[in-house]
Design goal:
Helices cover 26% and strands 29% of the residues. The chain is of the alpha+beta class and 150 residues long.
Length: 150
């Protein structure tokens, strides 16, 4: 089986929403940020996805999901790495995320747990951050560049 990672398109939206719902992740705001999503495709079927919403110098990594039959193949790590690399190219200072189930996984990728109120206010305004599914989810951050303090 040869899986392909590619940019998402409008035709992928129903499959992305279905995948996210099946793994209990919010679909809030996905359609509005679809151009910043990657998908993993196998024989025409979407089996993984992840998105990055950018708010100035801050970004929200969201909707990292892989179909259960495709887990333990580094697909999620590939998606996260590509999106973090894109954030670096876009000169993002920090990438935030919310998770209720994958805190240890994201720690292995360099993210650190932080109080929700420490998330940049622009990211806290996002649809995902405001969704009831994420209301109590721990926040994490991956700093990408040092910010000078005055």
């Amino acid at each position: 089986m040869e899986v392909v990672v590619r940019g998402a398109n409008q035709g992928d939206l129903p499959s992305i929403r279905s995948l996210l719902t099946s793994v209990n992740l919010t679909v809030a705001g996905v359609g509005e940020h679809l151009e910043h999503f990657l998908v993993v495709e196998d024989a025409g079927k979407i089996v993984g996805c992840a998105g990055l919403e950018t708010y100035g110098f801050h970004a929200l990594l969201r909707s990292v999901a892989v179909h259960p039959h495709y887990r333990n193949r580094q697909l999620a790590t590939s998606l996260v790495t590509r999106l973090v690399d894109q954030a670096r190219k876009d000169r993002v200072h920090a990438v935030y995320l919310l998770t209720t189930t994958a805190e240890l996984y994201f720690r292995r990728l360099g993210f650190a747990t932080i109080p929700r109120e420490d998330v940049d206010s622009s990211v806290r305004q996002s649809a995902e951050f405001s969704d009831s599914i994420c209301a109590t989810a721990p926040a994490m951050v991956l700093p990408l560049r040092a910010v000078a303090k005055h």
